[in-house]
Amino acid sequence: MDYQKPCRRILDPKDMPMWLRSPAYHEIVSFAEQLSSSVTGKPVSAQYDISENVHSICKMLDQAETWIAQNPPDTTASSRFGNQSFRKWQTELEQQVPQLLHDLLPTSSHNAIVELAPYLTESFGNATRIDYGSGHELSFLVWLLCLCKIGHFAPSDSPALVLVVFRRYLALCQQLQRTYMLEPAGSHGVWGLDDYQFLPFYFGSAQFIGTSVPPSESISPTLVEAKSDEYLYLQGIRFVMEMKRGPFFEHSRQLYDISGVPKWEKVNQGLGKMYKAEVLGKFPVVQHLQFGTLFAISSEIS
Q1: 8-45 burial, b for 16+ CB within 10 Å, e for fewer?
Q2: Burial (CB count within 10 angstroms: exposed 0-12, middle 13-18, buried 19+), residue 270
Q3: The pTM is what?
Q4: In 3D, which of 86, 223, 232 has the Cα closest to residue 168?
Q5: What values do phi and psi take at 78, rounded to 5?
Q6: For residue range 258-282, what is the model confidence (pLDDT) as tens digits?
Q7: Residue 105: which residues within 8 A CB-CB, separation 6 or more?
């Protein structure tokens, strides 16, 4: 395959129909659904394959976290959001990504780095705006999809991609948000699912299917404290509780309303539809997506 540097193709709201019928759209929807399905009823401590390739990505994310200590937040900053030291962290990432991917991938896949690098670079926030949102999270999902398409992961890796790799990514993103007070990109405030993330709640709701824990317990501080290391949904709730003040139903109305749904199956189905509508279906989110041969917006180059 001839790999190419990805470029933006969704430049105007009029481009949305092209995106919604593209191979890339259908692949990312199927990939998200497959990952969600793969962790149905599985806590983090469940039995599933964890390949060396999974471990390697976690080591790479561990390395990226060490750059936070090397680039501490600017304590002279006056604004609440957007500490400018994040730009130094992001610059380090951009400089290191080609070598990180070179070390991560076998020689036979090195020609794909030109296409893989931009997705990883865009996965942690925007250095100009000093913000992070569901579009950056989507970029990481696309990166994982592309790694699967070049054969770096097998279908049997799916549970570990969620419960090991994505969980490690989430922890790093939360540390970046906490340290540099990244501006929430495109936040819907009280009416949004979460200021920063979506997928921990989608994948995490699948983990609870078939368990004895009802959705009503998902915002219980006691359960969050006890089980957030086992369930991505609770890891997301724990971060919301850490970062926001006041009654939960006031600052996180959507998550509060979800706790009133009787069954996790219904929650999971609803979040899957919401992801397509509120993330993949929104121009302000997907306008930053880039497309190449692995993640193709037209069938001619897929």
Answers
A1: ebbeeeebbeebeebbbbebbeebbbebbebbbebebe
A2: middle
A3: 0.95
A4: 232
A5: -95, -25
A6: 999 999 999 999 999 999 999 999 9
A7: 112, 113, 152
